[in-house]
């Protein structure tokens, strides 16, 4: 008799001598062959590796199977107390009759609560050895990862059998299964007939990128130019009040072709306009005059609308008046020069450099003695000289600080001062805005407010634009073009202050036809970042949504388009913060955004409750996704935990998720998202959280299964979160405190944004605690910077609470800008104004 590696169903074979033995004389050959793989597995597993001792308690799974019966015989020989599981009542009867196992020691393994019965039968002691062959849901990687970190856990090994279409009777004497025993492998996964394991692998570079020809430009979360990226915009937020893109404020002007008529159009919007396709509001749009190219047209929009509104509508510019135009070589400055020329005005201009001065002389024919360098703060004297001490009728200003007050002094009696944009950085006392003696009119213009508040203004502007597009009043400005792929270069060029006129980012070449055309050429494909948008017309279910993480998740999802939510909770609104968030949602968003939020107490642990939950959601809209956050923590070492507590943690995770999976599959559409918030405790293990690890792991199996079935499924194993949720108030006593840092909730959301688009069903997101010297040095440097900062502000660093922020002491944006430059220059610290 012997064991070999395959090809053994045959009538003659060459075998290796050492793998062979004679058959004991009292066994028939047929009997002998039943002994080989079964008893060798028992011998190696129970005797050689588990060191089975006489009289021990042993739980044998699949007791009626070949290996199971062999184990029973061996354990009987060792006078052990045997407990067994079987799959059916027939097999139970077989063990009673054939092996004399008492009925109350045989359990049906399909009932997942057999462990309760075993604990009862052993007077709560449990068994000494588990000889296991159960797979799938009965065995969980998270459970094992946690148990292995508890006392005695080093003895545990597991096999997770993923192949549902093959049996679980592995022959551990043949490869690849024999490798498990030979190499004493701890965590084994069988998939596609192969033995492997679970490992955490880094997501490949570019995991959050895809090739797309539908994209828009935005800043990553760091809100700095380094974060400038093209994002995939496959999912558009529709028209109407939903069309607000709070996450993207880049780009207000656009030109392109209407998808419905093919006509060339130009328009202004509120952000997200560096893109190749967009839903826009009709009233904010106009046709492009035929003699302008699209690139020319786009230079006209914000520049001439600012000039029209500021100089003509507000300052009532009159023919022949004298006007001082600051930043004359800029886009708005040049537009103002063209319009003022049309009004036959006396033009004075300032520029920042000699090069720009030369440009105004050459391109706009402004006499040299009427152009002043604005860095010299005494330009007012020169202007007063040039106007024989009268001053100018109108100042069109974009300068700040001291230069702003200097400009104010250039005004003639009854002059008008038009300020473009913010002037909050100046001390009002320095600027006699209500200068009644000189009868000065001061106007500040914010074009975005104008467009938002006066729905007819753009009609008026477009009308004026068309009328003046051929008489030299409105002339497209000079511009520099950058291809979409070089958008970052365009922005850097702009911040360098080198440019003259406008900078245009080109998405695609314009067709030679200026008439309407039906075929609109697509833009070239670009490698872009993936981006999540939630459909405002669908409803999202968040279980445990009133918890720490859930409440923040709602706001984040809202910022990405989600408008309708069903939040589950066992008992509804309790804390003031929960009430505040929900009230704010209902008061602020319900009417305007057609948003809705229901707090449901439907019991997701039952099928009936799950049906009720889905019905409540369906009444609002089709269901877009499920985010499973419900959590009941009952941390305890495995040996100390009660069965009830163990199960209620597992069930809150697994049963609710499994019920939602099962019932949502019955819908006649697929969900876009089916996500469980799992934990690093499951992925890496954490002593005292075996139940939590178990529950999470079972949810992860559901995600894998859903992916196999072509459905969405994602488990994110988060590390401990610092600012909200279960670890919020536990200073540093989180699991893995020495190795893992606490993750900020916003970071968790940013990560989710990308993870929702990936293919992998299980991912981990955590930050490590960097205990290296380098960090300590950086910490020291940071402290020194903060001390320096307080000193600069005249504040005693020793008496300043650590949590005081620059906002608390009332930092203004001018100071913030200077501070930013100083920090960069002296400490090489790159901070954005928002961060400051
Ligand atoms: N916070 C972290 O550091 C962290 C780290 C990794 C993973 N996670 C995961 O993120 C999720 C949210 O965590 P969290 O910190 O926000 O927890 P949390 O503040 O405790 O919130 C969980 C919520 O679940 C609700 N809940 C419990 N049993 C429920 C049931 N049967 N049906 C419906 N709701 C139930 C509870 O609300 P009621 O009492 O109102 O029912 C509780 O507010 C959890 O799944 C957790 O595993 C969190």
Automatic annotation (TrEMBL):
Limits of the Carrier domain: 777-836
GO biological process per UniProt: fatty acid biosynthetic process
Listed GO MF terms: fatty acid synthase activity; oxidoreductase activity
Keywords from the UniProt entry: Fatty acid biosynthesis, Fatty acid metabolism, Lipid biosynthesis, Lipid metabolism, Multifunctional enzyme, NADP, Oxidoreductase, Phosphopantetheine
Entry keyword Acetylation: no
Segment forming the signal sequence: none
Database matches in CDD domains: enoyl_red
Pfam family, one: KR
InterPro entries, sorted: ACP-like_sf, ER, FAS_pseudo-KR, GroES-like_sf, KR_dom, NAD(P)-bd_dom_sf, PKS_KR, PKS_NRPS_Biosynth_Enz
Signal in keyword set: no
Protein name stated in the entry: Carrier domain-containing protein
């Amino acid at each position: 008799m012997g064991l070999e590696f395959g090809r053994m169903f045959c009538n003659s074979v060459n075998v290796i001598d050492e793998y062979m033995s004679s058959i004991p004389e009292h066994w028939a050959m047929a009997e002998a062959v039943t002994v080989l793989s079964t008893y060798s597995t028992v011998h190696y597993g129970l005797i050689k590796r588990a060191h089975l001792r006489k009289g021990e308690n042993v739980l044998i799974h699949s007791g009626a199977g070949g290996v199971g019966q062999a184990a029973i015989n061996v354990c009987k020989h060792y006078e052990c107390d045997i407990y067994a599981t079987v799959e059916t009542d027939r097999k139970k009867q077989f063990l009673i009759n054939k092996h004399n196992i008492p009925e109350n020691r045989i359990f049906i393994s399909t009932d997942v609560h057999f462990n309760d019965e075993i604990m009862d039968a052993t007077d709560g002691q449990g068994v000494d050895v588990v000889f296991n062959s159960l797979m799938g849901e009965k065995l969980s990687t998270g459970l094992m990862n946690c148990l292995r970190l508890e006392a005695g856990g080093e003895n545990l090994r597991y096999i997770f059998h993923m192949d549902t279409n093959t049996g679980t009777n592995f022959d551990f004497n043949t490869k690849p299964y024999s490798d498990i025993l030979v190499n004493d492998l701890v965590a084994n996964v069988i998939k596609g007939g192969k033995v492997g394991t679970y490992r955490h692998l880094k997501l490949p570079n570019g995991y959050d990128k895809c090739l797309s020809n539908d994209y828009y430009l935005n800043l990553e979360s760091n809100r700095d130019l380094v974060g400038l990226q093209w994002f995939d915009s496959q999912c558009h937020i529709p028209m109407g009040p939903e069309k607000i893109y709070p996450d993207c404020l880049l780009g207000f002007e656009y030109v392109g072709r209407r998808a419905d008529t093919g006509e060339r159009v130009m328009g202004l919007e509120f952000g997200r306009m560096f893109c190749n396709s967009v839903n826009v509001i009709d009233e904010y749009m106009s046709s492009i005059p035929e003699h302008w190219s699209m690139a020319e047209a786009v230079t006209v929009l914000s520049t001439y609308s600012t000039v029209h509104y500021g100089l003509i509508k507000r300052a009532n510019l009159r023919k022949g008046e004298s006007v001082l135009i600051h930043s004359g070589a800029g886009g708005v400055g040049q537009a103002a020069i063209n319009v003022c020329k049309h009004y036959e005005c006396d033009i004075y201009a300032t520029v920042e450099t000699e090069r720009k001065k030369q440009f105004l002389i050459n391109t706009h024919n402004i006499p040299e003695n009427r152009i002043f360098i604005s860095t010299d703060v005494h330009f007012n004297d020169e202007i007063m000289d040039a106007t024989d001490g009268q001053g100018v009728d109108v100042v069109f200003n974009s300068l700040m600080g001291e230069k702003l007050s200097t400009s104010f002094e250039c005004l003639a009696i009854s002059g008008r001062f038009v300020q473009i944009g913010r002037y909050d950085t100046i001390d009002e006392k320095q600027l006699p805005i209500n200068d009644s003696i000189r009868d000065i009119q001061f106007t500040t213009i914010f074009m975005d407010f104008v467009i938002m508040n006066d729905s007819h203004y753009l009609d008026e502007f477009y009308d004026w634009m068309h009328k003046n597009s051929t008489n030299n009043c409105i002339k497209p400005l000079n511009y520099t073009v950058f291809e979409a792929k070089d958008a970052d270069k365009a922005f850097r060029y702009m911040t360098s202050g080198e440019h003259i006129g406008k900078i245009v980012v080109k998405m695609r070449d314009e067709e030679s036809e200026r008439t309407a055309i039906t075929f609109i050429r697509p833009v070239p494909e670009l490698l872009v970042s993936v981006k999540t948008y939630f459909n405002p017309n669908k409803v999202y279910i968040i279980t445990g949504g009133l918890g720490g993480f859930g409440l923040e998740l709602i706001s984040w999802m809202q910022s990405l388009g989600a408008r309708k939510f069903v939040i589950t909770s066992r008992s509804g609104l309790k804390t003031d913060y929960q009430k505040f968030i929900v009230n704010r949602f209902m008061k602020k968003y319900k009417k305007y955004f057609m948003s809705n939020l229901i707090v449901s107490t439907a019991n997701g642990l039952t099928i009936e409750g799950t049906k009720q939950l889905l019905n409540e959601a369906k009444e609002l809209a089709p269901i877009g996704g499920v985010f499973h956050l419900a959590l009941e923590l009952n941390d305890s070492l495995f040996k100390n935990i009660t069965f009830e507590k163990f199960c209620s943690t597992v069930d809150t995770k697994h049963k609710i998720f499994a019920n939602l999976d099962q019932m949502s599959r019955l819908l006649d559409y697929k969900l876009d998202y089916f996500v469980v918030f799992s934990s690093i405790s499951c992925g890496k293990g954490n002593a005292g959280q075996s139940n939590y690890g178990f529950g999470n792991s079972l949810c992860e199996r559901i995600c894998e299964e859903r992916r196999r079935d072509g459905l969405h499924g994602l488990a994110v194993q988060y590390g401990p979160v610092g600012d909200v949720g279960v670890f919020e108030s536990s200073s540093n006593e989180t699991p893995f405190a020495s190795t893992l840092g606490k993750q900020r909730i916003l970071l968790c959301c940013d990560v989710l944004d990308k993870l929702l688009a990936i293919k992998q069903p299980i991912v981990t997101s955590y930050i490590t605690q960097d205990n290296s010297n380098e960090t300590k040095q950086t910490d020291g440097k940071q402290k020194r910077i903060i001390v320096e900062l307080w000193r600069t502000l005249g504040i005693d660093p020793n008496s300043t609470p650590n949590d005081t922020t620059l906002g608390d002491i009332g930092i203004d944006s001018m100071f913030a800008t200077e501070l930013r430059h100083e920090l960069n220059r002296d400490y090489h610290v790159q901070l954005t104004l928002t961060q400051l």
